[in-house]
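== Fold encoding ==
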Amino acid sequence: MLNTLMQLLPLLAIFLAGVILRRVGLVSERHSSLLLSAVFYVGLPIVIFLAIVKVNLNGLVYLALLPPVIVTVTTLVALLLRKTALRRVKAKTFGSLLAGSAILNIGFLYPFVTTSYGADGLARLAVIDCFNAIMIFSVLYIVIAGLAQHRPKVSAIVSRVLIAPTLWALVIGITFKFSGASVPMPVMNIFEPMALIVSWTLLFALGIKFKWQLKHPGLFTIELVLRLGLGALVGICFIKLFGLHGIDAQIILVASMAPIGLNSITLAEIEKLDVDFAVSAVSLGLLIGMVVVPITIHIANSISW
């Protein structure tokens, strides 16, 4: 455990640096938004592309099934709770809770997976990330829009899926991989140094965005149990069902216990849900993730899959 923590300590430090600099007023939320946009539209696509072209992808199709399974199971359990224990919760607040429970914050995991598993782990995480984005802006978007009593247009759903840079990075990477074409050396010379700073930039930006606030603590606890507890259970069942071993099983478990997703705020804003609750849950989820993710990685590495 100590070795794992020492390995991941620099990542914790860069996150805390963002928190502290925001607190003393040297940086603001605007800086965080700019950095996260740069990471989302440029950094992560480069990381995903490089991981795909460098790693053998044979037999990794099952990874695409994890997000649909987690989103489906979490949504069904949350809707069951809506009929029972959460029946008095306002629809807008419940919609934010559902989004946070079902959405995997895969972006948060990239720095940890890069440090712990290298390119092999990144390639696997990239596949999960792309299909996570597809599920967010298709099935989950429709369910949450229904809670907000709004029927989204098919064209809006399709456009949100197709403009995801991570999806195109995956498609282009796979195209290069299976066509046998090699990436030009000048492109690699540009991409590889840029990929090295993505992890640090992402965690620094998330540290800046962090806000110490808690709205609806009881509901947040339920959301956290659904995201981490139910997520872990689904992940373990997924591993057993497909008979996964080694790094495949490790990445599935880590991804299944990803923190509450940033896109839950996006959906809350689009559908005019309880945005304050969504922001509160994501912020505290990030802090909890800084503790849970290293522990999960240690457990995943310790188990004889």
In short: The radius of gyration is 19 Å. The chain is about 80% helix and 0% strand. The mean pLDDT is 87. The chain has one domain: 2-302.
